[in-house]
Recover the amino acids of this structure.
């Protein structure tokens, strides 16, 4: 893409396991602006779409309570201070949801991971929590049964933190990047 061009978000749903005749019409979630790294999650009737506003650095969340048929006003869940380049801010926002719980995570300058969690489908969010220093920009999230997992990597390997019952667990190393030759906990910290 050209750095200054709009990068807008479009949504379609399929209620029949990908059947070519079951796609809804395209919904334009945004019509102007520059969205960076869009992430999507669904749980029950709810659909969540998270992204970084590349112009302002705001971490945005769109919420649909009805499988994407309608959308609530966008929610700003945080802001990144990662330096902008010609393509704008890019915080690697990611979203995951299970039941009434939804989490959004993103990167700040210095590549620290930040996250917020809602226990009411995104109506309100808890405080911004710093989860880890030092990942290299790769974030991924998944949720199941009321738990939310956030995975991230740095030069040592991959770590996971799990949110459950209102608390983030400590970082757990799950993989090393030296093909297992000298695997040990990659030292992601415990904050």
């Amino acid at each position: 893409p050209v750095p200054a061009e709009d990068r807008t978000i479009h949504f379609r749903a399929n209620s029949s396991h990908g059947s070519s005749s079951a796609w809804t019409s395209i919904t334009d979630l945004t019509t102007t602006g520059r969205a960076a790294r869009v992430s999507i999650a669904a749980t029950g009737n709810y659909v969540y779409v998270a992204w970084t506003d590349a112009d302002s650095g705001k971490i945005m969340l769109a919420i649909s309570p009805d499988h994407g048929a309608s959308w609530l006003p966008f929610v700003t869940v945080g802001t990144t201070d990662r330096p902008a380049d010609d393509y704008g801010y890019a915080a690697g926002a990611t979203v995951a949801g299970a039941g009434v719980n939804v989490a959004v995570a993103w990167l700040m300058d210095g590549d620290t991971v930040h996250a917020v969690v809602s226990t009411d489908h995104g109506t309100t969010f808890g405080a911004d929590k710093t989860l880890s220093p030092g990942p290299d920009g790769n974030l991924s999230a998944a949720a199941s049964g009321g738990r939310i997992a956030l995975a991230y990597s740095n030069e040592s390997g991959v770590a996971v933190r799990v949110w459950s019952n209102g608390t983030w667990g400590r970082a757990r190393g799950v993989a090393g990047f030296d093909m297992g030759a000298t695997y040990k906990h990659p030292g992601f910290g415990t904050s």
Confidence is low (pLDDT under 50) at residues 183-191.
